Amino acid sequence: MAEINTLIKEKLVHYPPQVQKLALEAVQVAQSGMSEPAIMQHLEAVLRALIKQEGKVT
């Protein structure tokens, strides 16, 4: 799985930082053993935080 994570990280370099953060977080929580609803709630919270952060930057 480490090889896959490395490949994902290499591909993500071409995307904006917010996309990189969300994608890496998704990979991490998918490997954590959390339930699907818990993963969805967690990623929703991460996405909301990224949106708020984006709003403050501009």
Give an account of the 3D structure.
This protein has 58 residues and is mainly α. The protein has one domain. 81% of the residues lie in helices and 0% in strands. The mean pLDDT is 89.
Quick take:
By secondary structure, the protein is mainly α.
Helix and strand sequence? HHH
Average pLDDT = 89
* Main pleated-sheet profile: none
The residue fraction in helices comes out at over 70%
Strand content: under 5%
Instruction: Return residue spans where pLDDT drops below 50 for at least 5 consecutive residues.
Output: none
End-to-end separation: 37 Å
**β-strand number:** 0
The oligomeric status of these chains comes to: single chain
Q: Which class best fits the helix and strand makeup? A: mainly alpha
- Measured on Cα atoms, how large is the radius of gyration? 13 Å
Number of domains: 1
Shape verdict: flat
Secondary structure tally, helices: 3
Provide the fold topology.
Elements: H1 2-12, H2 17-30, H3 36-57
Helix pairs in contact: 1-2, 2-3
Protein traits:
58 residues, mainly alpha, 3 helices
